[in-house]
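yo

u said u wanted the structure for the complex thing, so here. seqs first:
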Amino acid sequence: MKVKDLESLFVHEVKDLYGAEKQLVKALAKMAKASTDDDLRKAFEDHCIETEKQVQRLDRIFQELGESSRGAKCPAIEGMIQEANELLGEHMEPHVLDTALICAAQRVEHYEIAAYGCTRALAQQLGKDDLAEELQRTLDEEKKANEKLSQIALSHVNQEAMAASQGGRNE
Amino acid sequence: MKVKDLESLFVHEVKDLYGAEKQLVKALAKMAKASTDDDLRKAFEDHCIETEKQVQRLDRIFQELGESSRGAKCPAIEGMIQEANELLGEHMEPHVLDTALICAAQRVEHYEIAAYGCTRALAQQLGKDDLAEELQRTLDEEKKANEKLSQIALSHVNQEAMAASQGGRNE
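structre next:
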């Protein structure tokens, strides 16, 4: 890492996002597979496909910047995926696992909302309006993905997890 | 970790928050010390004191649950602090470092907003309304801390970083 000015900080932030998204493509596929709830599985599957496109969007940003994505990593997302994997290793009632997956995924989405928000602000400050627009596109998608997860949790998954935890079933 | 039902998932989430906040007290003090901008340093100092109180709030939640905070950890926040420490090790123009610190801190705040949001939702689902209220209090504080950072970045820090990066000074 060589960050000295706003331009190199911007490149650093784009690399952080790239490291995050690359890891998330695999993690989201795994979370989709582990989901019990149909709506949740579909939300993860859809967002996995969306994330692949977000990686391509970042690839184009690297090209425009004349920079390489080499060495891109994101220890924070690594930590979040580690936490999600630990949860997947627990012997949890399936509906409770769905709730746990939502809790893990919303942490990821919020991290990304912050990261894209800051990186877009840097792009604007640097006068890179076209790149700011691209980053805003992904930011909007992350916000929608997060809202979708909230809606799934509050509409039925959390209640089902509760019913299952009490030994009753509401399905 | 032993997560099987919604109650044990809730305890797991509270432990994740505890692991996060305990690490953040130290990290925020370090970030305050590294800040150039007076408003930013004060924001970090204020939030550091607030975070100490949030740890005490979680301590009370553990007491009410009859659970111990032993073994609480948060690999995600660990990753974020690692990233922030790497930035602190760079030879950056001071105003640029302020911007970098804000980018790092907003990731942390957003992670916490998601984590407290999910944990509060679990408390509500479990009928633990008093604990839900306590968690909501911290959630509101995290949101305000995040807004404060946005306001500092957009009002002057990002511009100062830009001016410094261009070799000009606007102070």
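Chain A touches chain B through 55 residues (CB under 8 Å). Helices of chain A lie at 6-34, 38-65, 75-88, 94-125, 129-165.
cya
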